Amino acid sequence: MLFWLVPAGVATVLAMAYATWTGRKARLDGEHEQRTSPRDDATARARIGAALAKPVSTRARYVSRQPVELGTGVVVRKTARTKPVDAPPR
Question: By the 8 A CB rule, do 26 and 32 touch?
Fold first, then answer.
């Protein structure tokens, strides 16, 4: 079975619980309100409103496509073409 994953799973659950608890504590203490003031919120709303009010260009923009070089990891040398040799008669 995959019992070797249990310690990693336990550590992940503990880390999530710790982050949730400290975030909840900060919210209850009022630290969250100190980081974001209403003035910043009004400024952000004004900026997003101005950005959404700008006209959108409907003209298509074409970008030249560069050739895709497929790297296979195998080097292939180009060989000179020679005339095929006729098979001897039987």
Answer: yes
Q: Which residues contact 32 (CB under 8 A, 6 or more apart)?
A: 26
The pLDDT tens digits for 54-68 are 988 777 777 777 777
- Termini Cα distance of the chain: 65
Taking 50 as the pLDDT cut, the residues of the chain under it are: none
DSSP string, 8-77: HHHHHHHHHHHHHHHHHHHHHHTHHHHHS-HHHHHHHHHHHHHHHHSPPP-S----PPPPP----S----
